[in-house]
Each structure stands twice: as C-alpha cells, then as structure tokens.
Amino acid sequence: MAKHTVITMPGDGIGNQVLPESLRVLKAVGFDAEYIHADIGWECWRNTGNALPERTIELLTRHKLGLFGAITSKPNKAAQAELRPELQGKGYVYYSPIVTMRQKFNLDICMRPCIGFTGNPLNYIRKKAGGGYDEPQIDTTVFRQGTEGMYSGVEWTNPPENIRGALNTHAKFKGFAGVPGPDLAVSCRVITRNAAKRICTAAFEYAKKRGFKGVTICEKPNVLRETSGMMEEVAKEVSKNYSPIALWSTNIDAQLMWLNKNPEDYKVIIASNLFGDILSDAFAGLVGGLGFAASGNIGDDVSVFEPTHGSAPKYAELDPPIVNPIAMIFSAAMMLDHVNEGQKADRIRKAIADVVREGKVRTYDMMRIPGGAKSISQGAVSTVQMTDAILEKLK
Ligand code: NAI
Ligand code: MG
C-alpha cells in the first residue's frame, strides 16, 4: 500500500493541463502515493446542478489530502443558461466549488508564498535613487484567512424585512434607510476570534520556523473598527507567545502602495479573506505572476493544494498546451511540506530555481510574449517541455 493517498481534482480548462505535470514531478522525487481522480467544476454543474459532487466530498473526507487544478466560474445568469435543459428552472444555484470546499472542510489557513526565483525575467526591478536598478529578493508568504470575512457569503440584494429591521437599529444605517430594497445590496464581513487566532498562529509558526524577525498584520482597523479591529487585537495577543518575533501593522491601502518601495521587507503577512486575496495577487505580480503563484488551503483535518490561477479558458484548447506548470508544481511541493516530506519539496523547489536561473527554457509568460498557438514558434516551450526541464534537474 502507498504511504499517502491524494485526491486529484484537475477541474476545468488548464487545470487539466497542469495537474498531470505536477504528478510527473512528484513521481520523480519518489513521493510514495496513490492518486484517486475526483470530478469538480463546470461540467459537474452543467450535468447535475452541483459543481462539487458528493463523491469528491466523500473522497476528501476519507483521505484528507487534495491536489486541485482550477475551475471555471461564471455569474449566476450565465451559469443558469448553461445548465442542461432538464435542470433549468429547478432552483439550482451555482456556487464556486472552491469556495464551498474551503467552507465545508474549514480550510481556513490559506497560505500563499510569493518567492522570486533568480533569473526570472518577470521579477520586479526597482529604480535606485542614485541611478541604476536593483532587483530585491522577494520571499513573502501571505497568510490569508480562507473561510470568513467578505467571502463568508452572508449577503443580500433586497434584504428581507427582518434583516432590514436589524440594520435599521444601527445608527450608521440611517443614511440608507430610505433606499428601496431592490436598490440595496449588503455583504457581511464576518470575523470570528477563533479563526483569527488560527490564521495568526499559523503565520507566527511559519515565521518562527523560517527564522524571520517579524510578522505583519495587514488590515484597516482605523475604518473597519470591529472586524479589522478584532483581527489586529488577536494578532497582538498571539504575538505575545512568539517573542522576540515582532508584530508590525500596516493598512491594506498603504501596503499596496509600498509594494514598489520595499517589498523585500515583508516576509510574512496576515490578512482577512478579501484583503489576503488582493495582497497575494499583488505580491505574486512581483515574482512572475500567475504562472508562479502557488497556494495551500490548510484545515485541521483536510488540506487542498492548488495554483492561484484559474482555468484560463482561452488557452485550454491549445495543442500542445503552453501555460506555465510551475505554479501547480510548486503547489505540489507545498503539499509535500505539509505531509512532512519537506526534503522532497526542497528538491523540487531547487529544480525549479535551477531551470529559471539558467533561463534556457521559458514558457510564453516568462518571455513576455502573447500566449497563443504562435508562442512555440517564437521560442517559448510547451507546458510539458517546462516539466521535462524540471525533471532533468531532478535526475
Ligand atoms: P485565470 O487565472 O484563469 O487567467 C488569467 C490570465 O492569467 C490568463 O489569461 C493567462 O494570461 C494568465 N495565466 C493564468 N494561469 C497561467 C499559467 N499557468 N501560465 C501562464 N499564464 C497563466 O483567470 P481569469 O481569466 O480571470 O478566469 C478564468 C476562469 O477561471 C474564470 O471562470 C474564473 O472564475 C476561474 N478562476 C478560478 C480560480 C480557481 O479555480 N481557484 C481562480 C481564479 C479564476
Ligand atoms: Mg484571486
């Protein structure tokens, strides 16, 4: 029997192109695992009205470890139109299966490393005051709370009477009291102390392991006094257990402005769901963009690892596939870290770093050329060739 069982969910579009590449790499480092395929995504929605099938949930519940590619999500109207005719009008509502999965399994610690590989032509370059340029070494991991905040899903257009009534009791709601129901949309930003504590603790544990001097909490407590206020309060509380690691505090707006000033100073950043989503994409943009952005959704029981990117439908039909598999392979390495196979993970990261540093093998995104059928003739490698180059370094 294999030592580990991994539920593989390629999903939609390029998820189907990159996930198999990560399995080739896991095999090359000798990861002892059995893989069980599970469906997720758009076809499931179209055929059954449910993008996250029961069997997939059962498999994740049983085996607790998942690798996920990407899914396609569409606004509700478009989703309804693409349902099989016999399912239309039956009350099916489209929910993003990844958001559902995070909430269902309480995958509340979303870990997003943004690490610049030397030699990546997409890395951020900064102009020096005295002339010339430098390339700061960015090694930032965003700890994004994955289940609550603005993405808790507690929202209404035209809130029901009792909700309206409750809102009317808040002094600040007076200004909105006259807005007709259909013209009023409300999303609740829910923060719980326990979840805040978990994300803060995960961030400090990571900082301790890596030997970093400080952790930044990035919120907006001067305006979002209650929710950001609680995040910050909990971060302060948690930090007391991790002396001498410092707790720094930034506001989300200022933090984004500072991205092009001193991004290398931020090693570990904690943020609530929406802010963490924005922040991790912003940092990813400094180190190569979506082709390099990996993530882990880590719960107490179940964990799922996935590239940050989506299904990129415009590239999904190209033969050969041209998208960059590094984000997916890097996510698989995070899975290895999670199951105490860190040495294998390090070998993978080193192989990626070697390929990027040499600069001979680059997917289209790394060449800053448009993606498309012509990319290969312009010197870009295919998805498979990029993996081949990584495998070569693992020999
Ligand atoms: P996307 O991430 O799929 O693609 C945006 C652009 O980024 C692509 O057009 C491409 O230029 C580039 N890109 C993405 N992955 C790349 C890779 N591996 N290598 C090179 N370039 C890459 O986001 P988009 O276009 O906004 O959404 C497409 C679909 O994916 C939508 O249905 C969206 O809802 C879904 N989505 C799913 C996510 C998930 O499964 N976790 C996350 C984000 C979007
Ligand atoms: Mg995002």
Name the descriptors:
single chain; 395 residues; alpha/beta; ten-stranded mixed β-sheet; 14 strands; 17% strand; globular; binds 1,4-dihydronicotinamide adenine dinucleotide; binds magnesium ion
What does this entry look like structurally?
This protein has 395 residues and is of the alpha/beta class. It contains 14 helices and 14 strands. The protein has helices spanning 15-28, 42-48, 54-63, 76-82, 97-104, 161-168, 193-210, 227-239, 252-257, 273-284, 313-316, 326-338, 342-358, 383-394; strands at 4-11, 33-37, 65-70, 109-115, 126-127, 133-134, 139-145, 155-157, 185-187, 214-219, 246-251, 268-271, 294-298, 303-307. The strands form 3 sheets. Strands 2-1-3-14-13-4-7-12-10-11 form a 10-stranded mixed β-sheet, sandwiched between helices. Strands 5-6 form a two-stranded antiparallel sheet. α1 packs across α12 (326-338), α12 packs antiparallel against α13 (342-358) and α13 packs across α14. The longest helix has 18 residues, at 193-210. The chain is globular, with a radius of gyration of 22 Å. The mean pLDDT is 97. The site of 1,4-dihydronicotinamide adenine dinucleotide has 18 residues, from α11.
Using the CA coordinates, give the radius of gyration: 22 Å
Bound molecules: 1,4-dihydronicotinamide adenine dinucleotide, magnesium ion
- Outline type: globular
Spatial strand order of the main sheet:
2-1-3-14-13-4-7-12-10-11
Distance between the termini: 25 Å
What's the multimeric state? single chain
